[in-house]
Amino acid sequence: MGPAVTQMCLARRGEVTPAMTRVAAREALDPELVRAEVARGRLVIPANVGHLRGRLDPVGIGTIATVKVNANIGNSAVTSNVAGEIEKLRFAVHFGADTVMDLSTGGGIDEIRAAIIEESTVPIGTVPIYQVVQQANEAPDMTPRAFLDNLEHQARQGVDYWTIHCGILMGHLPLTAGRTTGIVSRGGALMAAWMLAHREENFLYTHFAEICEIARRYDVTLSLGDALRPGSLADATDQAQLAELQVLGDLALRAWEHDVQVMIEGPGHIPMHEIERNVRLEQEWCHEAPFYTLGPVVTDIAPGYDHITSAIGAAMIGWHGASMLCYVTPKEHLGLPNCQDVREGVVAYRIAAHAADVARGRIGARDRDDALSRARFRFDWDEQFRLALDPERARAYHDETLPAEHFRSAEFCSMCGPKFCSMRLSRELAPSIAASGEPGSPGC
After folding, report:
1. Percent of the chain predicted with pLDDT > 70
2. Could you give the C-alpha distances from 168 to 173, 209, 363, in angstroms and in order?
3. Of the residues 171, 199, 253, 278, which has the maximum number of CB atoms within 10 A of its CB?
4. Residue closest to 108 by CA, chosen among 79, 133, 136
5. pTM greater than the 0.90 cutoff
């Protein structure tokens, strides 16, 4: 094995690293608790040693931490622009993304990834198979050597975590035959194409030890990809999804033998009543490794609004124990997101993550809600805007109909006007209510 550089290896040796200390400060936790959770595998700190020497501000992902949000950016074969992806990165971080994944599949992938890592203060993830396939032209032309070489290259660039589709096996493919939407993971479909063309087992599974050794040398966290996640409610929690999840749990144990940090990726499209079960199965089968979920989308009938359909599921799965939520934008299933789509997706998921933290009873999670409510009751508009998750949007909506400066002290908004504001009336009635009797006393 290579030299000990991973946060997990150092944690198991009893060391509280600067990255752990920073995570503890951000989360208001005891540094020793952070170390213990990293050593156990319940908390990950995606922090490539190269990025950590640069601009990275470490974050912790796990059940003891606040629920995190990931934003996906990246180009496609249809549109490719480094400046555009950097602008998306800035939008994502500005509006609250805790990590960002570069999912570029078009031209100039290396240039885009290098620029994003250099610019980013948050952990950067990738799906390496995209570049490997692009270089090979077709999925069946991939080779294990080319894939491993690409991992080494990305690790040297400073990538903090990879999605690796190592849990989809030849024996799983027949389980997808009756699905409504088949294999919806791009990485999963590419690996299925390779396996069927070669009639061989998934080389990401058979070469998993070599993948771990590269990750160990640079401290790249493995995000074990859910290649068989359901892409429709009809396919939710089916045999294919669950068979892969069990393999991912076994691979998590193997990665930990190399002192490599691991997250487990999750669904997908799941109806609300199946969300809690999905979390419980992941925690049991994957040994409480952090659960990183896409959504889930809870209904399939709202193209153009899937940032909403998925944020509903994201809030619920975060409440039940997921550690990081991968955002969905309004463009999901329809097209490549632009900067405004990134904004809508990140804010929707920040709402979901915060709602989950409140529901989980995290100490201090509701403080901001209570402070904003008090400001609302005082008609302190500037304080409301300051406390809002998207202050710019809140201020713009208020000023759209009441733009004059003197309305900043008005005790009403444009919906109720000066005569019908319930909060203003409630304040005026407060002395009379207080004098009317004891709380809960029967009326006349």
Report:
1. 95
2. 8, 16, 39
3. 278
4. 79
5. yes
